[in-house]
Amino acid sequence: MSLRVVSGGYDHTVRLWDAAVGTNDQTFQFNESQVNQVQFSLDGRLVAVCGNPRVCFYDIQSGSTSPVLSLEYHRNNVSQLVFNESVPLALTCSEDSWLCEWDMRSSEPLRSCKSDGCLSGVVYGKAKDECFTCDYGGSIKIWSLENKQVVARLVFGDQEILSGMVFDPLYHLVASTGNSGYGYLCRVETEEDDKGAGNTKDESTMSNQTDDGYFSRVTKLRCSKRYVLKARFNHDASLLVSAGDDGNIRVWGDEQVTDRYQEQRWQTSRLVGKHQKWAWDCCFTRDTRYVFSASSDKRICLWDIETGDLMKEYKGHQKAITSIDTFPTTTRRN
Predict the structure, then answer these.
(1) Residue numbers of the domain that contains 88
(2) Would residue 296 count as lying in a domain?
(3) For 192, which DSSP code?
(4) SMART domains in the record, alphabetically (predicted)?
């Protein structure tokens, strides 16, 4: 397994691991706050670390333990950073309610948009200058970055505080998680999709339509009794993995059913791992054979999703691990 793993948490350290061997190769101190998110750059050279209130970038090839760049605009926890796959841009969102887009060659935001509440997640959308956010008010919003305004909104029930989201651009699927124990899968469409496909709009109870776009419900998953802290798709959005406060790592989806919008295909689930305390993060390997997970039990674990066997443990953190990311050491990330 030619992978590097990066992790961060409440012990104010960022650690790099050789996934095959299980060794902790590099460690960076991040003393100013807990680590909210770690993320490899698209070329694997940098690691972005989201904290409170800065984002710091470390050059892992140079061996330096000092950040080579920091983004300083937010005034509270930076919840998430995401890189643009096509151009050297990145988005950040924060509990200070601000959404920012950055040119990675500069330390000033290109655009900043004020939301009406604390933001917990952000992803780039399908169209140019489009992104999605989720927030503590229980809503997902589609933003026009150029116009700095919300063009569509979906508000969940269940008195939901959304903790994060992921988006698959091929199938236009959004998965979001929150504090009610549920995971939500929605399809995002626009007027252009309608015209091209000749589809009829699904006016379900989980839909919210505007002139510019709309959401349609795919399914609602009972992932945990209370908090669902993370969910991620595999590479082709045929499966979803979730991590919850019960320590359970679950994989959702029936790979035999090719229709990604069929509700029942997502109700199939299996428990592939179990932590002793809260599970904060999880992600598939590229081949979907394994799942990495991170927990308050101070372990990163590698699970075989077919057997549920614990293949490897990565130990070194002294407190809860809140975020992990992986990068192939042989080829560029797709």
Answers:
(1) 73-180+182-222
(2) no
(3) H
(4) WD40
